[in-house]
Design goal:
GO terms for molecular function: metal ion binding. The chain is mostly beta strands. The protein has helices at 125-129, 153-159, 166-176; strands at 13-17, 23-26, 30-37, 40-45, 51-53, 57-61, 64-73, 79-87, 99-102, 106-110, 131-133, 143-145. The protein is 12% helix and 34% strand.
Amino acid sequence: MGRFFFECPGGRVIYSCRDCKTFLSNVESVISDRFRGSTGAAFLFDSVINIELSNVEEKMMLTGRHMVRDASCKNCKKRVGWMYEFAYENDQTYKEGKVILERACIVESPGIDDKISDLPSTSTPAFNQSILYMPSTPTGVAAAAFLPRNSSSSSLETARSSPDDDRHRNINQGIRFGRRSFRGFRANR
């Protein structure tokens, strides 16, 4: 038997297996918290990781007949919920491919609030469409700006117009990265 490699979804709130604390999903993947399972309250998730699925079974549930697979934790093999494969009623087809995790089988814990994915808010459209934030690296580069090839140099200057703002300072660092042209623009030092 080989070694298991488990993924971590990240996010502000993380849901894990109650028994072994293996990561299963995050709060960003929750579609609804108004479901019921055999042990009580349950959540409907868009995506879940680190689970193993059983063979397809046809089950009659409160909302009608469904084809489902039991979902078990990949680490401890405990049943944590199920996955909807097929719904016979047309109004239930939104569940297909989604996973139910039962509240009694999972624990909720704080994750990491990812500030890197938050885009800056500014009124300049060229600025909004041209920024890609990346995590800090050991060399200190905190961000990179990628401007569209058809942009004029005035949009580059607009992005640099406020040197007191940390976001603009990070963009300038990214433009100067490597001291060479960046997507067709020459960095002004």
